């Protein structure tokens, strides 16, 4: 018989989530009780679902912890606990104990550390109930997380699916991305996706830091600028598993009626007492939440009522014969809409070949068509070339609507086999993105958990992970069929869940149908066509950059009076602030003088050494990001560089580009402009550069309807010159170059929320003068000020703002 898990409850997480989730309920004396109601409900639900016999409910203790000693600003940005919540803590602790649940608080550490220690000491299975992502670092073969509010569980594969790293990498992920709520520094500008990408590449934080010089572009610059804080960040993010704990009996006890009755009377919880008196209440315990297994049947959705039909019952077929293929082609032809998904040899769309295809016509009815599985004893499969030729008319038919998840990738792979996918009607990744752009995860596994309360089979479950991961073509067909058919099935289910939500908001539905979906085939063609580059010219530039970098390094050594590692922030800090005695303008969270880019820029105004360092860093970035890298990315078949354009990333709807990023080719320096010369057109063609004139200001004029801005554009005037004339109270013809430059900084800076302090730094003027410019600007363009004030009010009142296209 399986051992019942030890259940550990993150009471502090429960407390805050219940407080913010429930309306402001009150007891008989008018005292707030909402958090107590919510936590009690969650605890009783958890006990019913897990049949817990051993349990601990852990809360943060009062007072500072060891993390406050490590870092004085730890959680410094957090507001104090609201008075209406603080008054509920003691009644909640008393009620929890009266319900027979062990309660634990330990001074000097956080609830996370207590839970980590209890989990580490437990020899058997552990279930941690929390909504805190930090706890994912504790997951292993014994330890599973459950989120009682959402009903989702996270095992090792679930952590990988949710965060794109394994549990043992979570501390490193948290250290790199930082945490604004806890004030853990991290790498400025690095979010979870960037951190996960480089952890997957280098494995650990230590390995990444040892190779920090290899990380290209701005993300590399930001990483190297943050080296001094990462050790601290990791220590702050690490959950301690060695806390000295008091002796505590973790066995769940029967409710203490003598203690409960006065508590329930005081709080107005008469229904709680009645529920304890209900028949079977003392023994009621539901089975633990179902988890995904390798069996063909799927788990019932979390919170689904029974008895009744399983909402996730499914019938999956593997197509291995001509007759089965013909039957499924006929079924697809009769379907008003079907889901399609590809299984391939690579994630790189230009290299990927089809291993198999999956289809779904109704929820629960899906099939997998294996075409290129190759391993000992693999079943006989249909010929790939002949089968794709049979499917080609159906897949290319624009009158037969299809739905997919990230359809652009599937279309690329099919194009590699001579099939131009038609009828791309819906993409569930884009449906999710349009409906909730603020969510940072639109992958299928996350959507299935969020929309369907379903844990899908992860890729690692079928193909393995790390060095032991096998190609999909070597995955046994019967296992691959379950995984692939589920992908198509879940895609169809997600469409049926998301599309009604979009249609309930006509503006979002219009955005999806009229902008996002028509853009998909455009980006597909741009990616497939690629960009032609002159590799020889790039290699020549790389050699020249290396020579110039060597000169700058020698110059830096000469100015410093000795040799040092120009890429080491620690050695650089010693040279600049201990030996050269330059002023310390800012310190890192660990108290060391900062050598960040903006600090060096300020120092460079008075000293030559910082300027040499800045110039060296700039050339190093160009070399590593562009001149060294781009020639290596030329595709051997097309002779071109192929980027990936991402629609479902930026909350504003802006596209992003990766592998490589072709939206950020430098232009501001002479060396950067030379790199642009390496992007060329084939014989008989030209490259055309086109740009809107002052597009941001035109948009602001439209949004604000400011009379001054509208008049300037209507008269086709130079708006920066017109602003300078207005702000500096001079005739248009008398505006100097410096005044126009200042007006341009004001125009662009203020509409993006720049403060007087920021403007003073950009223009190198006093804060008093900058504040005067800001006041003059808004005096001359009052409509802009009204619009900016109103949009803040809208954001506060509605919790969101929208673009001109209606995007939230």
SSE blueprint:
Elements: E1 6-10, H1 11-21, H2 34-50, E2 55-58, H3 66-70, H4 83-98, E3 103-104, H5 111-121, E4 126-129, E5 143-147, E6 152-154, H6 156-163, H7 170-177, H8 192-202, H9 205-210, H10 217-225, H11 227-237, H12 257-267, H13 270-277, E7 315-318, H14 322-334, E8 338-344, E9 354-362, E10 365-370, H15 384-396, E11 402-404, H16 407-416, E12 424-427, H17 428-435, H18 444-452, H19 459-463, H20 477-503, H21 506-529, H22 535-560, H23 569-579, H24 597-604, H25 608-627, E13 644-646, E14 656-658, H26 670-676, H27 695-704, H28 707-714, H29 719-728, H30 737-751, H31 756-763, H32 767-780, H33 782-798
Parallel strand pairs: 1-2, 1-4, 2-3, 4-5, 7-10, 8-11, 11-12
Antiparallel strand pairs: 5-6, 8-9, 9-10, 13-14
Helix pairs in contact: 1-2, 2-4, 4-12, 7-8, 7-11, 10-25, 16-21, 17-20, 17-21, 18-20, 22-25, 24-25, 27-28, 27-33, 29-30, 29-32, 30-31, 31-32, 32-33
What does the model show?
This protein is an alpha/beta fold and 808 residues long. The strands form 3 sheets. The protein has a 6-stranded mixed beta sheet, sandwiched between helices. Strands 7-10-9-8-11-12 form a 6-stranded mixed beta sheet, with helices on both faces. It has a two-stranded antiparallel sheet with strand order 13-14. Helix 16 runs parallel beside helix 21 (506-529).
């Amino acid at each position: 018989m399986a051992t019942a898990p030890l259940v550990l409850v993150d009471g502090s997480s429960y407390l805050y989530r219940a407080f913010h989730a429930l309306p402001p309920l009150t007891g008989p004396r008018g005292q707030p009780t909402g958090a107590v109601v919510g936590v009690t409900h969650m605890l009783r639900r958890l006990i019913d679902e897990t049949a817990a016999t051993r349990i601990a409910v852990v809360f943060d203790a009062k007072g500072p912890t060891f993390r406050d000693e490590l870092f004085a600003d730890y959680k410094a940005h957090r507001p104090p606990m609201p008075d209406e919540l603080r008054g509920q803590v003691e009644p909640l602790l008393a009620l929890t104990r009266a319900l027979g649940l062990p309660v634990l608080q330990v001074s000097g550490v956080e609830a996370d550390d207590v839970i980590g220690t209890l989990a580490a000491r437990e020899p058997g299975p552990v279930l941690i109930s929390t909504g805190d992502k930090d706890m994912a670092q504790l997951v292993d073969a014994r330890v599973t997380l459950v989120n009682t509010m959402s009903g989702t569980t996270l095992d090792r594969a679930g952590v990988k699916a949710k965060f794109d790293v394994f549990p043992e990498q979570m501390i490193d992920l948290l250290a790199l991305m930082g945490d604004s709520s806890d004030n853990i520094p991290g790498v400025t500008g690095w979010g979870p996706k960037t951190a996960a990408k480089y952890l997957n590449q280098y494995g650990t934080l230590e390995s990444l830091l040892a190779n920090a010089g290899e990380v290209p572009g701005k993300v590399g610059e930001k990483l190297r600028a943050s080296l001094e804080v990462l050790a601290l960040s990791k220590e702050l993010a690490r959950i301690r598993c060695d806390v000295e704990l008091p002796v505590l009996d973790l066995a769940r006890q029967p409710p203490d009626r003598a203690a409960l009755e006065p508590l329930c009377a005081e709080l107005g919880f008469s229904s709680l007492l009645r529920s304890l008196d209900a028949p079977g209440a003392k023994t009621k315990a539901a089975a633990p939440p179902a988890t995904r297994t390798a069996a063909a049947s799927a788990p019932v959705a979390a919170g689904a009522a029974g008895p009744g039909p399983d909402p996730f019952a499914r019938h999956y077929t593997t197509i291995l014969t001509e007759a089965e293929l013909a039957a499924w082609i006929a079924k697809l032809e009769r379907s008003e809409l079907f889901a399609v998904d590809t299984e391939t040899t690579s994630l790189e769309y230009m290299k990927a070949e089809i291993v198999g295809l999956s289809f779904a016509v109704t929820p629960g009815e899906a099939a997998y068509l294996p075409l290129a599985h190759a391993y000992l004893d693999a079943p006989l499969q249909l010929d790939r070339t002949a089968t794709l030729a049979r499917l080609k008319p159906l897949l290319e038919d624009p009158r037969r609507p299809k739905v997919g998840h990230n359809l652009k990738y599937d279309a690329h792979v099919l194009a590699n086999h001579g099939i131009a996918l038609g009828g791309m009607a819906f993409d569930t990744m884009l449906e999710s993105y349009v409906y909730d752009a603020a969510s940072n995860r639109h992958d299928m596994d996350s959507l299935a958990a969020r929309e369907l309360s379903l844990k899908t089979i992860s890729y690692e479950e079928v193909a393995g992970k790390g060095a032991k991961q096998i190609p999909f073509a070597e995955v046994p067909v019967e296992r691959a069929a379950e995984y692939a058919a589920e992908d198509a099935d879940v895609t169809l289910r997600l469409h049926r869940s998301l599309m009604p939500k979009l249609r309930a908001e006509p503006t979002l539905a219009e955005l999806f149908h009229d902008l996002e979906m028509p853009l998909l085939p455009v980006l597909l063609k741009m990616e497939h066509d690629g960009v032609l580059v002159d590799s020889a010219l790039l290699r020549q530039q790389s050699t020249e950059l290396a020579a110039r970098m060597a000169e700058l390094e020698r110059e830096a050594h000469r100015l410093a009076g000795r040799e040092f590692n120009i890429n080491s922030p620690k050695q650089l800090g010693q040279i600049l602030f201990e030996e050269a005695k330059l002023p310390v303008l800012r310190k890192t969270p660990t108290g060391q003088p900062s050598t960040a880019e903006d600090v060096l820029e300020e120092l460079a105004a008075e000293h030559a050494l910082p300027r040499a360092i800045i110039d060296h860093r700039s050339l190093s970035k160009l070399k590593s990001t562009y001149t060294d890298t781009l020639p290596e990315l030329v595709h051997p078949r097309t002779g071109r560089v192929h980027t990936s354009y991402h629609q479902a990333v930026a909350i504003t709807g802006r596209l992003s580009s990766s592998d490589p990023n072709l939206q950020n080719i430098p232009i501001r320096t002479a060396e950067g402009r030379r790199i642009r010369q390496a992007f060329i057109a084939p014989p008989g063609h030209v490259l055309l550069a086109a740009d809107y004139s002052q597009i941001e200001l035109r948009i602001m004029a439209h949004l604000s309807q400011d009379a001054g801005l509208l008049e300037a554009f209507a008269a086709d005037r130079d708006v920066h010159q017109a602003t300078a004339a207005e702000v500096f109270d001079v005739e248009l013809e008398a505006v100097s170059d410096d005044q126009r430059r200042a007006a341009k900084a004001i125009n662009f800076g203020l509409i993006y929320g720049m403060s007087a302090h920021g403007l003073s730094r950009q223009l190198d003027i006093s804060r008093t003068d900058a504040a005067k410019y800001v006041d003059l600007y808004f005096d001359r363009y009052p409509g802009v000020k009204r619009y900016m004030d109103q949009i803040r009010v809208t954001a506060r009142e509605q919790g969101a703002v929208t673009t001109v296209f209606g995007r939230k």
